[in-house]
Structure formats: C-alpha cells, structure tokens
Specification:
The protein is mainly α. The chain has two domains: 33 residues; 58 residues. The chain is built from three helices and no strands.
C-alpha cells in the first residue's frame, strides 16, 4: 500500500479518527451512565494521547533528533535496542 499523500485525504482520515473516538466514547458512556466511568475514560484518552506525543515528538525532537519513527512498533524496537546497547557488560 502506498503512502497517503493527498492533504485532503489526510485531513479526512484525521476527522474520521476523531468521529470514531467520539462515537465509541458515547457508546461506552450511554451503556454505563456513570460519571466515574466518564472521568476514567477521559483520563485514559488523555494519557494515551500524551504517550503518543511523547513517543513521536518528544523523543524525536529532544532525545534523539537523528531517529525517525515509523510507528509504535518501531518505537518499541528503538527502546529495546537502546536497552540492549546500554546494558552493563559482565566481565
């Protein structure tokens, strides 16, 4: 599959992600109708958004500017290889 290059389609994809998230959250809240669940759902969404921002923006711009991530799997591989490189060597 080729990379998506059309700005209009990229914006559409973003809008569809937002609509899907709103729809899913609305269904969860409609099924539970509990304010604590609403708060926990909002906290989980916010936390995952911040983790995603951290994985792609913070690491790339502040920790290792030479590395470009292609996805979360690539980021996990980067962390794993970094862990293996920094492991203490036993003599």
């Amino acid at each position: 599959m080729a990379d998506l290059k059309s700005p209009m389609l990229i914006y559409l994809k973003g809008v569809l992600f937002v609509l899907l998230g709103i729809f899913a959250a609305a269904i969860v809240l409609a099924k539970t109708s509990d304010w604590q669940i609403a708060v926990l759902l909002a906290l989980a969404i916010w936390s995952f958004c911040r983790a995603y921002y951290f994985a792609f923006y913070v690491i790339e711009h502040y920790v290792d500017p030479g590395y470009k991530f292609a996805g979360l799997g690539d980021f996990a591989g980067y962390l794993w290889s970094k862990r293996l490189r920094n492991r203490p060597k036993w003599r």
